[in-house]
């Protein structure tokens, strides 16, 4: 047996026991004639001691040890003279009788401790060393735990885990496909799934009425923000259900995960908000409702007073930033510059300070009396001490900018505590999005999403304004300003599916070529069905109180989509290219 205990296990009650431990050397310290060694494994750290009067060969071996050497040690558990209350094993140490060096190690390029001195790039290159660090081990342990919880929950509700293929044909999630050339079928390509969407629907046609899968999905997108080219979804589908059934089932799943993994109770039932409400009040379809500071339209109060900028705007909206009326000129200039950055895109910013002495100071004093500004403040429920920030322009665009500003101000005020969880459902999405640029409709979710039954007349209408009004039978699960999941009740009837392709401008032939198999399947008794998918990496990160998903993936890619550890993507040799019937043009 390599070890009798792990490095996180022994306590004062074990004093006097003879034990064998195995692990990595985190640190060696010499003190007088004694040598102290911190031995680490994924369960913790135990202090080892080689006494000054230990056999010479043992003292000698101890003096050769370096960081990350792999050891097997034998010794006796003894009470420490100076205890360390910060470590679970801090009351004891192991008085060593022998050290067996199982493997030597080169000096690692960064410290392998709770906090490290290694930069991101070097840690990515030596990911297996970074993974030895406790924060990453905790992250992966949480991921494992959550996967276990959700499997248990879904299994106990009759869901079957069924794998679907990776070498498929393009799926309609709206991103670019990764493709794989087929050697056996020259000139043709598989696409890697952006999601198992079509397969899970075919499983419903096949009668497997409760399906799930923890599955890798692939999307060839520019890796802005916190995205990975391959990521994991908790993908689910159910038959004979309506929206209500799906929401209940999966908020139950999230509730169980919150309770069992974090000991956190989330509201029962979860709040729901319509997409229109979310846009009007938060300027976002994934509102962070951990704090208020809602957006209010103030157009009717400020238009027609001679301030041309507002007069000519389609929409004027404001947020009231609590307790921030004491912002200095410099701070206000800085926020103004901030909203003008291309990422936010506002043209300018108007402020109104509701000073705590009751006076009002604004950047538009020339055009509005204090009474008028007070009326604006009252209309949005702002009070003395608050700072109003006002933007104007096109309605949705301005709401969106106010939403971004709101989240920024919430962050600056410390209102976005990662340990506070405010989940909710967003429902009643528009089914279509009109693109001015392309002069056509796009599916807001994907082309298998069903319209609300009460909007079917509009769905079959030829008028653009009718189609714009159609709501989807779709829903998103949002947590702390992040969309964690989403799905819909699907179309299960071939005619309705054909109409969808028609509205999206997907011609008969193209629809047949891309999705003929599913239209065909719908002719053979497709049951009503619906489902959703959660982004598992992001679920893990948010449960762990972090914003980035990278720590929750054992071997992630960097911002350029590269794995710098294995150096991929990389070139392949000419013979491989030839076999694949591929020539590199540049
Ligand atoms: N396939 C969808 C997605 O990846 C989720 C769903 O509709 O179930 O976003």
Features:
binds aspartic acid, five-stranded mixed β-barrel, eight-stranded mixed beta sheet, alpha+beta
Determine the mean pLDDT. 95
Number of strands: 22
Work out the strand percent: 15-25%
Look at the helices and sheets and give the structural class.
alpha+beta
State the distance separating the first and last CA atoms: 57 Å
Side-by-side strand order of the widest sheet = 6-9-10-22-21-20-17-11
Tell me the helix content.
25-40%
Anisotropy-based shape: globular
Low-confidence stretches: none
Which ligands accompany this protein? aspartic acid
Give an overview in words.
- By secondary structure, the chain is an alpha+beta fold.
- It has helices spanning 56-64, 120-125, 127-130, 134-156, 197-205, 243-262, 275-282, 299-302, 308-311, 329-340, 370-379, 395-412, 456-459, 464-469, 494-503, 508-521, 536-543, 574-579, and strands spanning 18-31, 34-41, 44-50, 70-79, 92-103, 160-161, 179-181, 189-191, 210-218, 230-239, 272-274, 296-297, 315-321, 350-354, 360-362, 387-393, 423-427, 432-435, 440-443, 474-479, 482-489, 529-535.
- The strands form five sheets. Strands 6-9-10-22-21-20-17-11 form an eight-stranded mixed beta sheet, sandwiched between helices. Strands 1-2-3-5-4 form a five-stranded mixed β-barrel. A five-stranded antiparallel beta sheet has the order 12-13-16-14-15.
- 35% of the residues are buried.
- The mean pLDDT is 95.
- The chain binds aspartic acid.
- Aspartic acid binds next to strand 21 and strand 22.
- Residues 173, 195, 197, 486-488, 531-533 line the site of aspartic acid.
